[in-house]
Structures are given as structure tokens and as C-alpha cells.
Design a protein that fits this description.
- Helix 3 packs parallel to helix 4 and helix 4 runs parallel beside helix 5.
- Helix 2 links the parallel strand 2 and strand 3.
- Helices cover about 40% and strands about 15% of the residues.
- The protein is of the alpha/beta class.
- The N and C termini lie far apart (about 45 Å).
- It contains 7 helices and 7 strands; from the N terminus they run βαβαβαβαβαβααβ.
């Protein structure tokens, strides 16, 4: 039986790598991305061309869908698209995330705070609440999976990124609560918390600290290098696999040792 997943934030970075990893594990995937900028986010988001590139490299195994994770209607459409086009839904992965409000907490305006919370936290909630009824209806033997991308920032605090750090802490709490709600139905819910990963968010973070590029964050990690998106995606794919059947409510650090100390 072919398993089917939805991945949000799928047009680039960890989201795109997660689509790749799941397809390599035999999944069919609905790849969802907003594909347009958000005014309060100080860097360019993925484009329709980025999403098309992800879809095209996998042919019929991936269906692209433009949708906003903050919209309950769009997330319900993603679930309906998966079940209509591929016949079922087995896993959802919330990869969509942004940073904004690069300033001390008391200088962050409400619009920037709301942008960070709405994408990172509300977006994760919208995906889970849209998918949960279908995953429950599949039955306990179907081994439903939900994974959300949190961050090393969800285990610590980051200078001038309080909104992002607080939002990622909230994602971990949301995952743990949802894991308890869904455990009786055989659906596991977990978070993955990356360290400094070669993505657009990392480059935006470098600008917050006046760094020449995201490469300078490599020194924060004991392994001495940045992570590649596929390294995070591989852990996500494992959490979606039968091998992870006993893991739920966990926040898996994929951070090169960044939060060990």
C-alpha cells in the first residue's frame, strides 16, 4: 500500500527536502506552499517556480498546491486534495516557518509578532486540525503520523528573535498536547528541532546579527558545520516510518549538538 503525505512549506529548504525524502521512501506527496511574500517578513519567500521545481523532479509522485497554512480552508483543501488525488492520507508534516521582528522584544511591533506566530504556530495547528479526523478514521492499524518542524530556538533563547523563539517553544508544546489527544487512535505526533541549517531563514538570521552570511553560524554547532536540509528531512522521514511507532510527543534535536550544553 502506497502511503500519502502532506508537506507544508514545501517549495524550498527543509520542506522541499522532506518531500524528496518521503518520495524516496515510497510516499506520494501533496506539496503545499504559500508561494508569495508576507509584508511583515523581511525576506523573500518561496515562489511558484520553486514549488514547480519540487513537483517536476518527482513527476506523478508529487502534486503541488498553493495554499496558506494560516487558512483553515486551505489546509482542509490540502487534506481533500490528498484523499481525492491519491486516495488516502497517512502523514502530515508542518515545515512552513518564518522569522520577523529582528529587535529587542519591547521594540517588536504587533504586525511582525503576529506574522511569526500565525505561520509557525497557527499554521501548525491548522494542519493538524484539518488532518486529524482523516488520520483517526484510518484506524489504529494505519499508523498515522504528524511531524512539525520546531527549532533549536524552541529549546533556548535567541538574541533579538524573541518572537521566533517563543513561537517554536509553542510548537513543541502544541505537539506534546496533540500527541496526548491522538495517542488513543494510533497517531503519533512529534517535533524535529533543527540547528543552523542552510536555508533562507538562516540567511535572514545572519542579517539580524550583521553577519556576512549564514555560514558563520557553523561555529555554534559542535560538529563545526551547517546542517543540510536533507539531514533534517531524513529524521522527519524516519518519524513518519513504521520504525518510529513507539515515538510520540517527542522533540527530536537535529542540531549538530547545538543545544547539548
Amino acid at each position: 500500500m502506497t502511503r500519502v503525505a502532506i508537506v507544508t512549506g514545501a517549495a524550498r529548504g527543509i520542506g522541499a527536502a522532506t518531500v524528496d525524502a518521503l518520495v524516496n521512501e515510497g510516499y506520494r506527496v501533496v506539496a503545499v506552499d504559500r508561494c508569495r511574500d508576507i509584508a511583515e517578513v523581511p525576506y523573500a519567500l518561496a515562489t511558484p517556480g520553486d514549488l514547480d521545481a519540487v513537483v517536476h523532479r518527482h513527476g506523478d509522485a508529487v502534486l503541488g498546491l498553493v495554499g496558506d497554512v494560516r487558512s483553515a480552508t486551505d489546509m482542509q483543501l490540502a487534506v481533500e486534495t490528498a484523499t481525492r488525488h491519491f486516495g488516502r492520507l497517512d502523514a502530515v508534516v508542518a515545515c512552513a516557518g518564518v522569522i520577523a521582528g529582528a529587535a529587542p522584544l519591547w521594540q517588536i511591533n504587533d504586525a511582525a509578532w503576529d506574522a511569526v506566530w500565525s505561520v509557525n504556530v497557527l499554521g501548525t495547528r491548522r494542519l493538524i486540525e484539518a488532518a486529524a479526523p482523516t488520520l483517526i478514521a484510518n484506524g489504529k492499524e494505519a499508523h498515522g503520523r504528524i511531524v512539525a518542524v520546531a527549532s533549536a530556538a524552541g529549546r533556548t533563547g535567541l538574541l533579538h528573535l524573541a518572537a521566533y523563539s517563543a513561537a517554536k517553544h509553542a510548537v513543541v508544546g502544541l505537539v506534546r498536547g496533540a500527541a496526548m489527544d491522538l495517542a488513543p487512535y494510533g497517531v503519533t505526533v512529534n517535533a524535529v528541532s533543527p540547528g543552523s541549517t542552510r536555508t533562507a531563514i538562516l540567511e535572514a538570521s545572519a542579517k539580524v546579527y550583521g553577519l556576512a552570511s549564514g555560514e558563520e553560524f557553523a561555529r555554534q554547532q559542535p560538529i563545526g558545520r551547517l546542517l543540510e536540509p536533507i539531514e533534517v528531512a531524513s529524521s522527519i522521514a524516519w518519524l513518519c516510518s513504521p520504525a518510529a511507532s513507539a515515538v510520540t510527543g517527542s522533540d527530536v534535536a537535529v542540531d549538530g549538538g547545538m543545544t547539548v550544553g
